[in-house]
Write a structure and sequence with these properties.
The chain is built from 15 helices and 10 strands. The protein has about 375 residues and is α/β, with parallel strands linked by helices. A 5-stranded mixed beta sheet has the order 2-1-3-10-4. Helix 2 packs across helix 9, helix 6 crosses helix 11 and helix 7 packs across helix 8. It starts with about 50 loop residues before the first helix and ends in a 6-residue tail after the last strand.
């Protein structure tokens, strides 16, 4: 078992929602010594993803944070007719490191980098670890999008289109120049080291430019119908809201209740000239400043927002800040959230609308050490 040099808290982009949390109490796996001949052993390389998932689930050692990221894990377990129990994972990868969690949740652009890399705060496992990808398993849920209230969009259509035009321009530059984008994020108060920031930027770029099927996406911000529907279907299956009326409302939601592509279309058909109704606007991030949000920082740093007549404030998230609430009550104008969060918020009585989908695939994987499954 490898040991890292310094304890670090991973920056999982999670938000507490008014949903019931399905936490498991499976037993931890103890470190054992392998015995028997090679003929009696099954190499992890010969095991399928299904074998790995079943072995970890049966041993009660699948981990997840349980604060909005668990629905893909529940869908994955259900896919293989397994129970819904999982271990509550903290925001470090210590459980993975000490083998108490043999199949641990990780975001490709964050925790997976900490596990693999040996820079300050990393565990240094390198390519010795492997992972199961939610996209490959067909249970992917879409993450970061741009949203606002329906009322704000209807009252300020040119402002929304202008904001999207500049933000997408920032994202286009960021994915083409991730190293520079990482440096820009770092200068704006990055919450992680410069080395981890650079790793994050490279991985976030992949989520923006690759869809759930592994195909290249050139239309940044596109709201893919199939991927969004899959996300909403999984949300309906596994999210349980505390309020019975809200829970019933969630089941009746359609994509048309949570998204509107007309503002994105207006932005993409524009020559970059806008008569904005509101020049000073703000966007609430889902977490602390880092490359997960590099497109907005690039747009700000490069002056893209100024070019369309906007003065934009980027508001950091984290802690008890709920981006859906902040947008709904008018504290900020725009926000970054996940499709499932927006659906839950609207089911609970909010009036939010997605206007662009930035991440085109899920960033969630389950990472494991092959030797634990030999």
């Amino acid at each position: 078992m490898k040991r890292r040099m310094k304890r670090i808290v991973s920056l999982a982009s999670v938000v507490v929602m008014g949903a019931s949390v399905f936490t498991g109490c499976g037993s931890s796996k103890e470190e054992t010594t392998q015995t028997g001949s090679s003929a009696e052993q099954s190499s992890a390389a010969e095991l399928s993803s299904e074998d790995i998932i079943k072995a970890a689930a049966e041993n009660g050692s699948v981990g997840n944070w349980g604060l909005g990221n668990e629905y893909e894990v529940l869908a994955l377990l259900s896919k293989y007719d397994l129970g819904s129990d999982y271990l509550s994972q903290d925001f470090t990868m210590d459980g993975f490191d000490d083998d108490s969690i043999t199949l641990a949740s990780a975001m490709t652009y964050n925790e997976l980098g900490l596990v693999k890399n040996d820079y300050d705060g990393g565990y240094g496992y390198g390519d010795s670890v492997e992972y199961i990808d939610m996209n490959d398993e067909g249970v992917a849920m879409l993450e970061d999008n741009i949203f606002c209230t329906e009322d704000f969009a209807k009252e300020n259509p040119n402002t929304v289109a202008a904001f999207l035009y500049a933000s997408l321009k920032g994202w286009e530059y960021a994915v083409e120049n991730p190293e520079e984008a990482a440096e820009i994020c770092y200068t704006y108060g990055s919450s992680v080291s410069a080395e981890h920031q650079a790793y994050m930027a490279e991985e976030v770029a992949k989520l923006v430019t690759t869809d759930t099927q592994g195909e290249t996406v050139t239309d940044i911000g596109n709201m893919d119908e199939d991927a969004m529907q899959q996300t909403l279907d999984i949300a309906k299956e596994y999210i349980s809201l505390d309020d019975s009326d809200a829970d019933a409302a969630l089941q009746s939601l359609t994509l048309d209740d949570i998204r509107d592509s007309s503002y994105l279309e207006a932005a993409k058909s524009s020559d970059g000239t806008f008569d904005v109704e509101k020049s000073e606007v703000s966007i609430q991030l889902k977490w602390l400043p880092d490359a997960q949000f590099m497109g907005y920082y690039v747009a700000l740093d490069k002056g893209y927002y100024k070019e369309v007549g906007l003065d934009v404030e980027i508001v950091a998230g984290g802690g008890d800040i709920a981006e859906t609430t902040a947008v709904n009550n008018g504290t900020v104008d725009f926000g970054v959230t996940w499709v499932s969060n927006l659906a839950s918020a609207n089911a609970g009585g909010m009036n939010l609308v997605e206007v662009a989908q930035i991440f085109q695939r899920s960033g969630l994987v389950l990472v494991y050490k092959p030797e634990n499954f030999e």
